[in-house]
Write a structure and sequence with these properties.
This protein is of the alpha/beta class. Helices cover about 40% and strands about 20% of the residues. The chain has 14 helices and 12 strands. The strands form 3 sheets. A 6-stranded mixed sheet has the order 2-4-1-5-6-7, with helices on both faces. It has a 3-stranded mixed sheet with strand order 3-9-8, with helices on both faces. Strand 8 and strand 9 form a beta hairpin. Helix 4 runs antiparallel to helix 5. About 5% of the residues have low confidence.
Length: about 375
């Protein structure tokens, strides 16, 4: 499973600059005018995970293959997008396709970079985007509720189940709250909720784009966003798109020294990905051997056959068992043989929930 995240926000907040830095490409045009990104640009980047390098070194793997993460740079939104203003219709359609949202908020002052609203206020900007998304969701759900209400009166079971999910969400949206605040906890109802593909039903990571001098500590503007994120139980990270752009041009050997000079331990990319992983309940497991050491991404709670299916559907269909070694045991005991000798290699069946860092080998019948 990949991590598919849409980078959104108002024009000129640093979305495309961040996208270019994250993917180290010039695919997205960063320019000082609205709608410079007309079509969504998609970039794939490797998930930074030092565990993979350590495993490869122990097993003397010839190749290292990290898991891939996908970022989508989506055209800037303006007021009235829910009614088709600017590139509104396209924006809403593109955002509906992603798993999560990185909402870039401008938290820096620069007279040379215009702001579509005429001034710098990240909370206002967040509200502008949120309002447009909620209005679009409200319009979509009201139509769906009307259709299902008619069917429910005639005894349609599916329509009744749909209404039970839709109605509380409508209450939340009409009160100016995101759909995710009314997400049901029941698994069956949650599945219906997910199927609605609501824009405000997606998890959100606020990315505060600050000036270089505030990259390590944040500033007064990002502090306001942090308070908002805490109140919403949302994720938040401070980045500097300008710094990320510089880092992406450096050799890996130079990056660490450059970051340390700015008081940073890791790149914005790493922070965005780590927060994104937590946001989507994703974990990583590994397959390791002399040919390659490889990382795979799955949802937390995925059972062994489902994890095997990420590699190939035949692995899931013909699953017999998984030979499992915890990452810390693999490292501490010097690899697969050492783990086996110490009794730390386990044989797990179909009900085993894969844990983050597990080193797995699947046995299956075709």
């Amino acid at each position: 499973m990949g991590f598919n995240c849409g980078i959104v926000g108002l024009p000129n907040v640093g979305k495309s600059t961040l996208f270019n830095a994250l993917t180290a490409t010039a695919a997205a045009q960063a320019a000082n005018f609205p709608f410079c990104t007309i079509e969504p640009n998609v970039g794939r980047v490797a998930l930074p995970d030092e565990r993979l390098e350590i495993l490869a070194k122990i097993s003397k793997s010839a190749k290292i293959i990290p898991t891939q993460l996908e970022f989508v740079d989506i055209a800037g939104l303006v007021r009235g997008a829910s009614k088709g203003e600017g590139l509104g219709n396209q924006f809403l359609a593109n955002i509906r396709e992603v798993d999560a949202i990185v909402h870039v908020l401008r938290c820096f002052v620069d007279e040379n970079v215009t702001h579509v609203e005429g001034g710098i206020d990240p909370l206002r900007d967040a509200d502008t985007v949120d309002t447009e998304l909620m209005l679009a969701d409200l319009e979509s759900l009201e139509r769906r509720a009307d259709q299902n209400a008619k069917k429910a009166k005639s005894g349609d079971k599916d329509a009744k189940e749909m209404l039970a999910v839709v109605e509380p969400v409508l209450v939340a949206l009409r009160a100016g709250k995101a759909a995710r605040t009314a997400m049901p906890s029941d698994p069956a109802a949650k599945k219906i909720f997910t199927g609605l593909q609501l824009l405000t039903g997606k998890p959100v990571l606020y990315a505060c784009n600050v000036e270089e001098s505030s990259a390590a500590t944040g500033n007064a503007l990002s502090a306001k966003v942090a308070a908002k994120a805490k109140a919403e139980n949302a994720a938040m990270v401070v980045i500097s798109a300008a710094i990320e752009a510089e880092v992406s041009q450096l050799d890996p050997s130079e990056q660490k020294e450059f970051l340390e000079g700015l008081g940073l331990k890791e790149t914005g990319l790493s922070r965005v990905i780590h927060e994104g992983y937590a946001l989507l309940d994703l974990i990583t497991y590994f397959t390791v051997g002399p040919k390659e050491a490889r990382a795979w991404t799955i949802k937390k709670g995925t059972k062994a056959p489902g994890a095997a299916g990420v590699i190939h559907t035949d692995f899931e269909k013909g699953f017999i068992r998984s030979e499992t070694i915890a990452y810390k045991d693999y490292v501490a005991l010097g690899g697969e043989q050492g783990a086996k000798d110490a009794g730390k290699a386990r044989s797990e069946g179909k009900e085993y929930e894969v844990q983050d860092g597990d080193v797995l080998h699947f046995l299956f019948n075709v």
